[in-house]
Automatic annotation (TrEMBL):
The gene is rpsI. Belongs to the universal ribosomal protein uS9 family. PROSITE patterns: RIBOSOMAL_S9. This is Small ribosomal subunit protein uS9. HAMAP family: Ribosomal_uS9_B. Residues 106-128 are annotated as: Disordered.
C-alpha cells in the first residue's frame, strides 16, 4: 500500500494526514498523539474511526495540524482519518457515515457586526 492522504476541517482547524501501513503510531506535528493531546477524551475522539473499523494497530498516521483550538483540531483530525480510511477501503463508508464521522461540521464562529460589541450582543439600550 502506498501513502494515502486526506484533509479534514472543523471551525478554523485544518488537518492534513498521510496514512501508510504500520503499527498504529499517530504523529502530530512531529509529536506523539499522547503528547499533543494530553486529554484522554481528545485521544478517544481522534481514534474513533480507527476503533470503529478495528484497524487501530494497522496504519501509521502522520498529521500536519494548524489553526483552531484543541477541540476543533481533534474533530478535524477525526474527519481526515475517516476520509483516508474510505479512500483505502470504500466498503467502510456506510459504517463510518452511520456514526457521523464522514460529515463535515459546518458550524463556525459568526462574524462580529459593526456597531455591536459581539456577533449578536447589542450595547445596552438607553431610553433617555
Amino acid at each position: 500500500m502506498e501513502v494515502v492522504n486526506a484533509l479534514g476541517r472543523r471551525k478554523s482547524a485544518i488537518a492534513r494526514i498521510f496514512v501508510s501501513e504500520g503499527t498504529g503510531k499517530i504523529t502530530i506535528n512531529k509529536r506523539d498523539l499522547a503528547e499533543y493531546f494530553p486529554s484522554s477524551i481528545l485521544q478517544y475522539v481522534v481514534k474513533q474511526p480507527l476503533n470503529k473499523l478495528g484497524v487501530a494497530e494497522k496504519y501509521d498516521i502522520k498529521v500536519n495540524l494548524c489553526g483552531g483550538g484543541f477541540t476543533g483540531q481533534s474533530q478535524a483530525l477525526r474527519l481526515a482519518i475517516a476520509r483516508a480510511l474510505v479512500k483505502i477501503n470504500a466498503e467502510d463508508k456506510a459504517a463510518l457515515r452511520v456514526e457521523g464521522f464522514m460529515t463535515r461540521d459546518p458550524r463556525s464562529v459568526e462574524r462580529k457586526k459593526p456597531g455591536q460589541p459581539k456577533a449578536r450582543r447589542r450595547f445596552q439600550f438607553s431610553k433617555r
